[in-house]
Amino acid sequence: MRIEALELIEINMPLVHFFQTSFGKTSQRRIILVRVVDQNGAEGWGECTAGETPSYCEEWTESCWITIEKILAPMILGKEIPSAEHTWDLMQRVRGNRMAKAAIETAIWDLEAKILQTPLWRHLGGARQEIPCGVSIGIQNSLDELLQKIQKELEAGYQRIKVKIAPGWDFDVIKKIRDVFGMIPLMGDANSAYSLNDSDLFKKMDEFELMMFEQPLAYDDIIDHSKLQKQLETPICLDESIRSPEDARKAIEIGSCRIINIKNGRVGGHKQSKLIESICRNEQIPVWCGGMLESGIGRAHNIAMSTLEGFTLPGDVSASKRYWHEDIIEPEVEVTAKGTIIAPETPGIGFSVRKDRIEKLAVRKTLIRQ
Description:
Blueprint: E1 3-21, E2 24-38, E3 43-48, H1 61-76, H2 87-90, H3 98-115, H4 120-123, E4 130-132, E5 135-137, H5 143-155, E6 161-164, H6 171-181, E7 186-189, H7 199-205, E8 213-214, H8 223-229, E9 236-238, H9 245-253, E10 259-262, H10 264-267, H11 270-282, E11 287-289, H12 296-305, E12 329-330, E13 340-342, E14 352-353, H13 355-361, E15 362-369
Parallel strand pairs: 5-6, 6-7, 7-8, 8-9, 9-10, 10-11
Antiparallel strand pairs: 1-2, 1-15, 2-3, 4-13, 12-14
């Protein structure tokens, strides 16, 4: 392949309902889309999963836009790329900026799968076509509102409920959920809101037999997580701390976690996700796919990744309608009555990109050529 052009498009998409974590509240997403075009006019699509501010990690919308436009795109344009797996190597001399890299890399994977006339999930080496799905529910205005949302998602068939927790919205919240819904598959996501000083709180929450506590301590830590995990029966799942295959190897080696969440953007794209999945599978560490409030394009890439063998736990890959009044792909992502998504057989990401919808939502665009 030779990439002749790369287009950056920012769209603004209002969420159906605000999403609140320990980072803050999000009501609208600023999403950067990447479209790559090869020498024959074939195109592939990727999505940058960075947030509006550098809160989840150092990257954010503005930093990713300029990094892709000024630094990463010139490294790709006009180069002969033997395969999508080589895309990462072309950008490797740039440190970090994994979400920006992933936006380009995943677009090239989509392009290559289309050229090969194969579904992306098969091209990545997926082991199964049907994936189990869970939902992530943010901090609500009231506990009653949270319980209503959980009831709605259970009725929709989702196989796992994840609730966001934060100081003051933790023990009593989980207790009430257990009292009302019993032993449903349930996990708590802290998004780095606690410290080792809160160990006793987490030991108390062992009684709820949660599937996992996700990233309870600092976003860049594996040492203190190792200390906390040794005190708990409940598995710790690492999210923000795992940015590379080496991070995963080290965290597993020192016992920082028993589960890992893989996000394409956080780790740098499909190649890095596949390497982490392989390490975890060999060490018998379950993985699952986390969500970043993606549009249908990012969601489609997550579906493809979730078909890999090591993704044995329900991920945050849910239906388009949970987040968007109208998505930018067709058909929109749907979940079966038993809480699964079936990866499509159409070549590439498997969904048609709605350019008309993107055009209506676009707030800026730039086309970069060699």
